[in-house]
Fold Amidophosphoribosyltransferase.
Amino acid sequence: MLSLATKTLPKPYNHHRTLTTCASKNPLTDVVYSDQPDPDGRSFGSYFDDDDKPREECGVVGIYGDSEASRLCYLALHALQHRGQEGAGIVCVNDNVLKSITGVGLVSDVFSESKLDQLPGDLAIGHVRYSTAGASMLKNVQPFVASYRFGSVGVAHNGNLVNYKQLRGELEENGSIFNTSSDTEVVLHLIAISKARPFLLRIVEACEKIEGAYSMVFATEDKLVAVRDPYGFRPLVMGRRSNGAVVFASETCALDLIEATYEREVLPGEVVVVDKEGVQSICLMPHPEPKSCIFEHIYFALPNSVVFGRSVYESRRAFGEILATEAPVECDVVIAVPDSGVVAALGYAAKAGVPFQQGLIRSHYVGRTFIEPSQKIRDFGVKLKLSPVRAVLEGKRVVVVDDSIVRGTTSSKIVRLLKEAGAKEVHMRIASPPIIASCYYGVDTPSSDELISNRMNVEEIREYIGSDSLAFLPIESLNRLLGEDSKSFCYACFSGDYPVEPTGKVKRIGDFMDDGLSGDMDSIDGGWLPASSRVRKTIVNEVRTI
C-alpha cells in the first residue's frame, strides 16, 4: 500500500516540537556554525539543508594515453565536483615517476595553471572527496601514493570497506604503520605485502581480502588500472577520446566534458589494465548478483549522467510520474526542493497536468562560513540557501517534491518557509522510499536511531514536518519501474537487508584524523556505526501501510 499520510483535522503547527537527533553534532557540514541556539532552542547546524541529506564520499578519474592527462583529469574532476567538495588531488606519471598534488577545497581552489604545469605526463588519476573539515584533513586527501619494493603506486577510491577495522588490526599486528584513518590505505598495505607477480595479481589478491564497496583507479610507472567490487555498489565507467586515450570516471558527465565517448561500465568484479600493450580485462573475483546503489539515481549522480546503464534524468522523471499517479492531490502548482528534486517535480507536474514553477530559489553562493546576526533568525541555515517566491506560492495549494527525507529537520523548515510565504496548503512528495537503515557502502548516512523513518510512521513524520499531506515513492513501484534490473540494485537503506553483512563496527565515511584526533580508534567517539542488526520487517510494513 502507498506510503501516504494526509492531515485530516486542521491544527496549528507547533514549531517548538523537537526531534532528538545529533544533526547539530554532525561534523560533516558545509559551513561553520555558531554554537549558540536559535529561537527554537537548536543550533544553526541542525537547520542547514545539506545537513539532512545522505552524502556521497567521492569521485574518481583515470586517464591514459594523452599528453595533457593532468589537465583533462582536472576538467573531469570539475564535472564530478558534486560528489565531493572538501578536497581534490591529481597524481600524474612522467618518466616513470609519480608526482602528486592534493589540497583542501574545490577543484578550482586546489589547482592553478602553474600547478598543472607541474604535472606532465600521459597518465593521471584524480579524486574529489567529501569528508570532515578539520585541521589535519590534508593527509586524508586522495589520491594516495606509496612506494614499496616493486615500485610506486597511486590509488583513488570511491566506496567504503566494511571489514576495514579487522584488516587494519591484522596489518598493525604484523608491523604496518598507518598514516591516515582512510580505509583506502589498507588497500595499499595489502598490495605492498603481497608476494604475487605481476602488479595486476597483487591488486586481485588485495581485493580478495577486502569486503564492501570500492571503485578504484590505480596508477603505476607504466599502467592505469581500474577495479570495481564484485557487487558493483559504486559506479565506474570507461570511455575513449578521439586520439585513443582511455578514460575511467565515476560518471559519464565527466566523459562528456573532456569529449570522451562512453564505451561501457567497468563490470562488477572486473579488473581493467591499460598500458602500452592496450586494454586488458580480467574477472578473477567471484560474481554474486550485482547490487548497485539505487541512491545514485535518486540523489547523487547528475541528471545528465548515465549510471548503471540507465539515464539518471529519465529515472528521476519516472519517480515523479509514479508519485503523481499513486499519490495524487488537488493542487495549483508543483515546485521542487532544488536542485535534486527538480527532475522528479517535472515528472510529477507533467503527469498531474499541473504547472511546474520555481517556488524555491537556491543560492549557489553560500560560502563555508557566515556571520551570525546578533538578533537570531529562525531557520537561518535553510534561509541562506533557499528563498521562497511569494508570487508563486501565495494563496496556492502547493505540491513540493524532494528526493528524500533523512532526519526530517530540513523538511520541517521548508514547510514552514513555504507557509510563511503564503502557501495555502503544502503537500510533500518524496521521490524515494523511506530510509530506515544506515548505509555501509560509501554513503554517509546517520545511524539508524537518527533516521526519522526508522522511528516514526508516515503520519507521525507528516505531523512533525507540518505538511498537509506526505507520500513516499513505494518500493514496489520502484521495483516495477526497474523491471528485470530491480534485483541488481541495493535497497539496504530502505529494508535493512545488507548484501555484504558488516561484522563489528564499521567506520563512518569521515576520517577521524581530519579533526586532529589520534589514538586508539575505539576511543574516538562518533567515528563508528554499530554493526548491522537486522531491521525488523514489521518496521518497513508499518511505514508502508500508514
Summary: DSSP finds 18 helices and 28 strands in the chain. The chain has two domains: 56-288, 314-364+378-484. The CA atoms of residues 444 and 509 lie 6 Å apart. The first helix runs from residue 69 to 79.
